[in-house]
Amino acid sequence: MVELYILLIFMIVGAIIAIEVKDLLSSVVAVGAVGLALSIVFLVLKAPDVAITQLVVELLCLIILIRATLKRDLPFSTSGRWFLNTMITIGFIIVLLLVAAKSFTDLPPFGFPIMRVASHYLNNGLSQTGASNIVSAVILDYRAYDTLGEATVLFTAVIGVLAIVRRIGRKKVGEKVKEEDE
Amino acid sequence: MAVYLLCLVLFSLGIYCILRKRNIIKIIVGVIIAEYAVNLFFILVAYRMGGRSPILSEGATIKNMVDPLPQALVLTSIVIGLATTALLVAIAMKIYEKYGTFDITKIKELKG
Prior knowledge:
By secondary structure, chain A is mainly α. Chain A is 71% helix and 0% strand. In chain A, helix 1 runs antiparallel to helix 2 and helix 2 packs antiparallel against helix 3.
C-alpha cells in the first residue's frame, strides 16, 4: 500500500500548487495532474471501470477549462479584509476537521468493508443478470433507474450550458460574431 | 485510517480554495478538487485488503472481491461532475464577457 500513500501525497501537492499558483493556465494544468493521479489511484484500489471513466472525464474537463482560461489571465487582487477572510476560512476548516475526526471512529477500518448489500450482488449477480462485470450489472440492471436519473441530470446540464452560451437576437448588419462558445 | 485523513486533507484544500479565492476559475478549481476527494473517499471505503476487481472469471473466488456498489455510484457521480463543471465554466465565461473580469469582488453592479 506504499504506492497509495505516494499517490495521495502527490495529489495533495498538486492541489496546493493548483490553489496557490498565480497563473491560471498553470493552475488548470495542475488540476489535470491531480485528476490523472486520481485515475491511477482508482486502478490501485481495484476499480478499473471508474479509472477509465475518470481518465476520459478528466481530459474533457481539462479541455473545457483551458478553453475558458486561454488568453484571459489577470493579476490577483489581495486587497481588503485579508486577515478576516483567512481566519473565517481556517475556522470553518478546523470545525470540519473536528467533526470528521469524530465521525471517522464509526467507520469500518480501511480494507475491511461491511458489504451487506454488495455480497448479495456478488453472489447472485451472474445468475440474475448474466453480466460478469458486477459494476456494470449494478449500474445497468440493479440500479438502472439511477443511471436514468444520471442521464436526465446530464441532459439538463447540457441544456443549461446551451441556454447560457447561446446568443439571443439578430445581429446587426456590420457586426461580427465573436468566436466565443465552447 | 491515515488514508482517510489524507483524503480529508485534499477535501479541506478544496474547501479552502472555494472560500478564500476571489478568482472564479480558482473557485471552479476548488470545486473540482473537493469533488475528486469525495469520489476518492467512496472508493477508499469500498476497498478490501488483498481484494480483486469485481469481475467474475473462471475459478475466481467470490469471497475476495472489493465492494462493487460504491464503484457503480462513483461512476455516476464522475459523469455528473463533468456536466456541472461545464455549466460552471459556461456561467464564468458569460460573466467575463459581461464584466470583463474573473474577480468576484469587482462584479458588484448588477445592471440589467
